[in-house]
Amino acid sequence: MALFYINRYLGDDESANSLNNKSRSQTLLQKLHEEAKSRQQHLGIKAGPTDEEERSSQGRDENGGEQSRKEKRRAKEETTNSETSRKKAKRMASQSGDIKKSGRNTDCRVLKSEKGDVGFSTKQICSAKVKGSSVRVKQKCKQKDQGTNVAETAAEPSDNEARSLDTSGEQSETREEKGNRKLEKAEPIGLKEQDGQGENQPPTAPKSNLTILKGFQKKKIHKVRRVLPQWLAKPMLVSKDIKQNLKAIEDVPGIDQKLLHKLRANGIHSFFPVQTEVIPALLESTKHGLTLGRGGYRPRDICVSAPTGSGKTLAFVIPVVQGLMNRVVCRVRALVVLPTKELAQQVYKIFSSYAEGTTLKVVIVAGQKALPAEQTSLVEYLSTKQAFFTEQGYTNSSEMIIDEADRMIDSMHQDWLNQVVKAVYQTGECSAPGILFQRTNPGACTAASHSRLQMPLQKVLFSATLTQDSEKLQQLALHQPQLFTSSYAPSEQGPHVIQSKHREAVGTIKTKYTLPEGLTEFYVPCHLNKKPLIILYFVLRMKFSRILCFTNSRGASHRLYLLLHAFGGIQVAEFSSRLSPNERRKTLKEFEQGKLQILISTDASARGIDVKDVMCVVNYDAPQFIRTYIHRVGRTARAGKAGLAFTLLLKVQEQRFLQMLRDTGSKELKKQLVRQEYLSLLIQRYEGALQVLQQVLKDEKRRKHH
Ligand SMILES: Nc1ncnc2c1ncn2[C@@H]1O[C@H](COP(=O)(O)OP(=O)(O)OP(=O)(O)O)[C@@H](O)[C@H]1O
């Protein structure tokens, strides 16, 4: 009802519709004043009449008393009407208040406009004109989380109501302003169309006083695409297929006869793809006798991502030995940084083997301490013992090779790189005035920085799981890096583009990491208490030898080792940080010599360790990260050979684990079921072994407490 009255009132005034909301109420009030005034004039209730009026009034009294009486009666009726209207308006105001109060539960209306039905969502704020009469409904609808509607409805006063509220014109204006404020607030959300003046409304469209705020539809969320820097997006591709893309060692230019002889003596007659690509690139920077790039400028840093067992070690050993073998002055020229002691020993052996018979000296610095402490001591050792083998620490070092680079980047917080770089560029004779070569931290490339010959430090990174996270790589402050990678989609690139002569960057990275071609992977669904039985099945029934079995903790490794030992008849050993470095070295040697059927290990042996002819890798505990999986299974199927990998999965682990592999673009794992009847044959002996295990663990605990 309230709305009806208001409609009627506003409908009288067409011009009011074309005004904006704010001025409209003022106009209406003014109009009301004028109307009241004219009625008063008409009734003659005007204060202070003019002489003329007084006279004519007197005349009227004299000449037409009857007419005057009629007018008075009409005036009285008007006053009564006015009184009734005032009462109605009062009732309406209270109704309007009720609506306001109950606004939270009020649905927004569907109003019929001149053009037809217009459906308003509860998210819209609208004003509408209905059939000649005008209605303005301010609806403030707040959208809550799941489309909960909150509607507030306020009505403009009707003719009579307006009159009754005449004195409270300010109040009405305040409400109007409030409404406008709400509209203004809502405006940025969507397009506002008002009185046919909306921005997108065609000029010919019929006039409409609807205010519709749009833009509340569900918007499609665009996936943010990673944009890689050019050097990561357009790498040099390296073939994954080791067997198919070999190159005779003599065909790679720039390698000394002595080295070629050594290679042949070590059974290497052709280079693997990663070596074919990377060796020439590294030789290029050392061919002038110093580490210099093309045109004598600072050489580009190099990143190499190639599968496990693809020969990355020789890819840096050969160019480093070749570049330094004819040196006369003994200086530390190259530095190789590795994450574990075992790996450092392994690489040290390879360097020593190829440096044999030259003037080169190879030194290993691998203390008994933890990695961070060792990194610090590495710097100290080289600085303090310089007289012993280098004279200047590694201020003369011109090449830094970072093997297992992703692992080394993970430990960047230990600040090892800064310490090394500082040690390289520390003030020494090379920085003194009058010295031909400058040894200062290069910094920005300017005319001044190139006014003297530089002796920069070239960084070379190797990994089977090199991160593609450019932010992480940025920590290494690489100089115009160049990426060599095997991680690409095979369908897009033919093998012909991968040969050395096609040295331009081609293709894009599609897969994250690559596994060796000769690797066959399985997963074995199993229950927790069946896991040891499955290992026994692999050793005793399948007769696998040289099994490398990974657990997720040294405690788990130790218990499994004790259990298999207690079972009897199995050559088993453990490899973890529980053992001293000497014990570890001895164990690895035994495993290499084929004296062990199975080696139970933590991830201590997962990276880089090159043990010949490991037949199979078993993930007794499923690895949590894809990188861990890749390095573990990469201990087999090395150098183009075949290998097996089994991952024991509990029911709850299956989905997540298999998805993790899918996400990296690797092949689907095959499912391997183990027959219950085979396991049943082992159960009796196994239960005996369990009892022995319990006793041994108790004894160990007692010994530990004493
Ligand atoms: N050109 C070659 N011909 C034959 N064998 C090779 C050749 N290059 C390397 N090898 C052998 O391949 C094996 C794996 O090499 P290497 O340890 O360098 O692999 P990798 O890529 O560093 O693996 P990881 O990522 O696990 O450290 C070694 O036993 C090595 O002697």
Automatic annotation (TrEMBL):
<dbReference type="GO" id="GO:0003724">
    <property type="term" value="F:RNA helicase activity"/>
</dbReference>
<dbReference type="InterPro" id="IPR001650">
    <property type="entry name" value="Helicase_C-like"/>
</dbReference>
<comment type="function">
    <text>RNA helicase.</text>
</comment>
<keyword id="KW-0378">Hydrolase</keyword>
<feature type="region of interest" description="Disordered">
    <location>
        <begin position="11"/>
        <end position="107"/>
    </location>
</feature>
<dbReference type="InterPro" id="IPR000629">
    <property type="entry name" value="RNA-helicase_DEAD-box_CS"/>
</dbReference>
<dbReference type="Pfam" id="PF00271">
    <property type="entry name" value="Helicase_C"/>
</dbReference>
<feature type="compositionally biased region" description="Basic and acidic residues">
    <location>
        <begin position="55"/>
        <end position="79"/>
    </location>
</feature>
<feature type="compositionally biased region" description="Polar residues">
    <location>
        <begin position="197"/>
        <end position="209"/>
    </location>
</feature>
<comment type="similarity">
    <text>Belongs to the DEAD box helicase family.</text>
</comment>
<dbReference type="Pfam" id="PF00270">
    <property type="entry name" value="DEAD"/>
</dbReference>
<keyword id="KW-0347">Helicase</keyword>
<dbReference type="GO" id="GO:0005524">
    <property type="term" value="F:ATP binding"/>
</dbReference>
<dbReference type="InterPro" id="IPR014001">
    <property type="entry name" value="Helicase_ATP-bd"/>
</dbReference>
<protein>
    <recommendedName>
        <fullName>ATP-dependent RNA helicase</fullName>
        <ecNumber>3.6.4.13</ecNumber>
    </recommendedName>
</protein>
<feature type="domain" description="Helicase ATP-binding">
    <location>
        <begin position="293"/>
        <end position="484"/>
    </location>
</feature>
<feature type="domain" description="Helicase C-terminal">
    <location>
        <begin position="518"/>
        <end position="682"/>
    </location>
</feature>
<dbReference type="InterPro" id="IPR011545">
    <property type="entry name" value="DEAD/DEAH_box_helicase_dom"/>
</dbReference>
<feature type="compositionally biased region" description="Basic and acidic residues">
    <location>
        <begin position="98"/>
        <end position="107"/>
    </location>
</feature>
<dbReference type="InterPro" id="IPR027417">
    <property type="entry name" value="P-loop_NTPase"/>
</dbReference>
<feature type="compositionally biased region" description="Polar residues">
    <location>
        <begin position="16"/>
        <end position="29"/>
    </location>
</feature>
<feature type="compositionally biased region" description="Basic and acidic residues">
    <location>
        <begin position="172"/>
        <end position="195"/>
    </location>
</feature>
<feature type="region of interest" description="Disordered">
    <location>
        <begin position="127"/>
        <end position="209"/>
    </location>
</feature>
<dbReference type="GO" id="GO:0003723">
    <property type="term" value="F:RNA binding"/>
</dbReference>
<keyword id="KW-0067">ATP-binding</keyword>
<dbReference type="GO" id="GO:0016787">
    <property type="term" value="F:hydrolase activity"/>
</dbReference>
<keyword id="KW-0547">Nucleotide-binding</keyword>
<keyword id="KW-0694">RNA-binding</keyword>
